[in-house]
Every structure is written in structure tokens, then in C-alpha cells.
Design brief:
two-stranded antiparallel sheet, 2 domains, nine-stranded mixed sheet, globular, Beta-lactamase
Amino acid sequence: MILTFLTGIILAIAVSCNKTDNRNELYPAKDFIKTGTYLGEYYPTAQWRECSPKEAGMSDRYLKDLNNEIVRLVESGVVIHGILIIRKGYVVAEQYYSIYFDENTEHVIHSCTKSFTSALIGIAVSEGLITGIETRMVDFFPEYDIENLTDSKKEITLEHMLTMSSGLDWDELDYPYSDPNNTHYQWRNSGDHIQFVLDRPMEYPPGEIQNYNSGLSDLLSVIIQKTTGVRSDSFARTKIFKQIGIEDFYWPIDVQGFARGGGGMRLKTRDMARFGFLYLKEGQWDGIQVIPIEWVNESQKKHQPFQHIGNYYYGYQFWVSSFGMYAAVGYGGQWIMILPDYELVVVFINNFEEGDGEQWNIPERLVMDYIIPSIEGS
């Protein structure tokens, strides 16, 4: 099933670089290991501070081995674009393994977009713009005549949508995204993306089984716009991005005029890390509660076992591991990893081969084999 996932959590909008181009320069000029002094807590609204791993309680040896391992993988043909490690709010290691990317370059983050959409839902709920997560899905769309409107479908709530346990018949991970049998393919090629999702028949009772459904994530963005009066990208700029120092981003708009809730955003790696750090700090940023702490806590709970990926659960549009990490995850190997017990945020940007399960496991393996031991062995 993991192999099928690698065909794409979300339909690839653009491929940043091809493998041949990314192997033109394997050893960028900048050093992987950062230097500098740890000066205490702060918030990187203006810019990130850097310090040596030792200053942040990490071992240089493990991180040097990590960089050597990534270089080996790149030389073997694995398209790794970059990695960024934040410990206690400081950049301790960072590298880009492609001439096309650096800290100032936006990278497509694909389904990591879903986690941003979830954060906006949490803010809208906290401000009373959405009554609550128990609100029924159909109540947000009174203007639609919905097919297959059974009593079971009427009971789908906002929380079911967030945890992808709506029970709707949706087959996204068992076929390539270019296969007409894939429900995602049918949805993207339908005349009305909202109507298509709402009309799907029920397969399970709501809340019973997690089933990956990018259409639901896009509906969440529609709900944000319907309840706040502004598109999700504008709501995010005001409520999150300006607060934490994100100035440049690209959030695609679909043909119906809604910001896509399920994928396609482009961000710089250090801005991806800002979002991860915001969650690491329980939604608080420099004295302001940007995202309600209750929402942050619920987002990282193991609400549903992930049906297609072993040892993972699904929270509120976040992946939740069995070893104390939760993450925003996107097609091709995009990760914003949050490890509260280690005061860590780790960002990966990649362009992994479709259908390669070994590549899919690389970011988690690198964290387990090198990054966590660098703290324990410091």
C-alpha cells in the first residue's frame, strides 16, 4: 500500500526538477553544520538564529554522518532537495543538494497544505465563525442538491472530515493518480469539485474507518471561505503568516475560485519550519495564541489508524507516528516533522521516485538513525 501512496498523496501540480538536473551539483558550497551560540529562547519572526549543534545539546558526529548518508543517497540517484533541522528554535543543520533550491527558494509542499487548512479551521472555530467540529458537513452546503443523501451521510461532521473518517466511498490510494479508476482522478476531472464530493455514496458509517480523501480537504477550504468571507490563502495570511513571519508563498486557486485545501502550496523550507515551530510551541508565538492550544493538542492525537500506512495514525489533517512525532506530509517526500519530546522540527523537501517504498521511508529512517541519536548521544 505504501507503494501506491508514492504515486502521489495529491496530484502533482508541477515537478520541480528532474533527476538528471539535480545531480549536476552534489556538494553545495555551504556547510551542513551550523556555528554560533545559543542565546536563549526567542521567536524567529524576522529571521532564524543559528547555533552549533553542541550549543543546542546535539552531537556533531551523528549529524556529519547524516550528511554523508544523504550525499550517498543523492549519488545513488535519490532526488533529495534539502533538509533543515531546528533544535530549541535554532537552525543547527541545513543543506540543499540541488542547484535549484536553497533557503530562499519556494518548494511545492503538496499535501502538507492539508495541515495548514486544518489550522485555519481551528482558528475559525475558536473565533465562532464555525459553530464547532460537531457541525454536519451537509449544513455547510444548503444550496446543493445532494445525491445518495442517506441518514448516514447526514451524520458526517466536520471532525469526520478532519480525520478523513467520513465513510464516503473514495478510492485514492489503490490506483495511480493518472488512472481513471482513481476517485481523485474522477474528482479533478469533474465539472464541480464540491458537488462530486458531496454526491459520493457511503461505504462505511461515519467515524468508523480512516480513508484518505483529498476531496474532503478541499471542502474544508471551501468551508473556510463560506464561513469567514475570505479565501483560505487570505485568511492564512492575516491569521497565521503575518504573525509568524511568512511573507512569500503560493497557494493555488481552483477553477471554482477556492484556495485548494488539499495540496499545491509552495513555501520556503525555513517558512515550513516556522509553521512546525508554531505547533511545537503549542500554537503560541511571541505572546500571541495564533492557533488555539486545544486545537494543536487535538491535531496530534491518534484519532484514526491510517488505513494504508502502517505505524501511523491520522489526526486533524496531520500524520501521527507511533514514536512521538507528528507531521505534515506531502507527495514526493515533503515533511514538516514535529517532535515535542526532543524540541525538534525537521523539514525535508524531496522529489522521490513514484512507487518506491524504500525512498518513502528515508526521512523517518534518517530521523531515527541519526537525528534523535545526536541528542541522546550529545
